[in-house]
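Lecture 7 notes: from sequence to structure.

We start with a single chain of 425 residues. Read the sequence below before looking at the structure.
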Amino acid sequence: MKVFQNACIVTVNSSFDVIEKGTLAVEGKKIVYVGPRRDYPDAEIFDCSGKVIMPGFVNGHAHMPMIFFRGYTDDLNLQDWLWQRIFPLESRHTPDTEYHGALAAAAELTRTGTTTVNDMYYHGEYVARALKEAGLSGTVSSCLMSSNEQAESVLRSALDLADRYKDDEDIRVAIAPHAEYTCTPEDLRYWGETAAKAGLPIHIHCSETRSEHEECVARHGMTPVELFESLGMMETHMLLAHCVYITENDMDVIKKHGASVLHNPISNLKLASGVAPIPKMLEKGLKVAISTDGPASNNTQDMWEEMRVAALVHKGYLRDPLVMNAKTSLYHATKGAALALGYNDRGSLEEGMRADFVVFRTDSPAMDIRTDIVNLIVYSGNSRDIVMTVAGGEVLYDSGEYRKLDIEKVMGDARNDFETIFRDR
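Now the structure, written as tokens:
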């Protein structure tokens, strides 16, 4: 048993309780106690005096192996970014580079407090392997495009992967058509039917830019959301990344089918895609997960930073300081994100929940004067304050040291792969 004593515990439970000088006890992968101080004489004790414990972040949308392209693909619009830079570079990936890239991204996620991630890339098996090795959990998927002659093979591999991990506590699998504009309606219908039959969610990009949204309407007489509904894709749980340009009817369709929106504010700002109408979605009761998107369009995998921007951008865009607050942003980076992805066992610190959490210091100049702790977390803190990341009850990162990963090897392999991918560029 591991016991974390003397901490300020931000539970993110239904009452958003904050427990001062509390105790959090972990047995195996689960939290068995959280509350006022309780002693456990035979446990492994972690003294968290002067520190805060909060749930680990749940990253709703990522492309982990894109870590190699960080800094090379900046200051472009989405279509130029994809077609001129990303797709040509991705053709140089190998199984080793996808795995090593995902492992390096997992190290960054661990250091910055993410414990669960929903990832989309070309071969979900390599991301799953990296997550397991790093001690993280999440949903993985293999990207499907109609232009890929091997799409059926990719689909079959995804189904095999789902079968392989069906009893695994840490890894889930989704079916991932890339987007409306890279997939034919026939393929989207088929992949949706396949996902529903297998009981798997669909992870897809949706209405990320104005041009994507308007061109879909021109092609099909429907928005992407309306098209997905007409093709029967919403018969299974849909995870819709971006949703920057969606109509009020789109929101109603999403709500009706219980689909989820994956909100990527920094990536959308950086690519000048726009600002998703998240306050309106929340008003309508949609499920929303704050997300980083990939490291080539963000360019970090830092959910703490993403949470802060999510709390700020809507205030400025709508010129209303009341449309988003710190508590809402923290919720949709943790518990709300978990529920949006279909996880009911994480995102808050309660008995019986998965033991996924971070411990951070509050003695920095930005955090030392304590008023409202949730406001301080979102508006004043940052991931550099994290001293420990715990996932599934296992300490993954502690005071600058990775407990599971050989970080020197991980980054050395990534540097070697970078040289291979960029050779002759």
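The mean pLDDT is 96. Keep this in mind for problem set 3.
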